[in-house]
Specification:
This protein has 123 residues and is mainly β. It is built from 2 helices and 7 strands. The strands form 2 sheets. A 4-stranded antiparallel sheet has the order 2-3-4-7. A 3-stranded mixed sheet has the order 1-5-6.
Length: 123
Amino acid sequence: MSPPRQEAAPDELREPQNDSVASGLIRFNENVDMILERGTFASGDIEVCGLMWGVVAKRNRKDSSCHLGIYLHHLTYETRPWSVDVSAQFKLVGFGDRNREWELKKTFHNGCTRAGIDEFIPW
């Protein structure tokens, strides 16, 4: 007799993992004060849809805007066409009610001249 199956918690069902081939989702959750202190924040590599992505966030000290960048590593121009749709969800946590959530979407393909999403977010 096989052991009883464990059901996943509701939150686990709703949130795909970053390394899930099916997810196409990069999640970034951090405190905006840490961005201010360090200048550059959350640079790193994440695998999404089998491709390596870089994520970086910077805060502009002059106007307090945030620059969020997502880019594809090792972009190659193959003869075989390929494309991938990517959604990135950003949640920056600030003071009180100043939390911001953004979703960015873009299709990348092997003809891309610039493989990235850049957004300036007024804070």
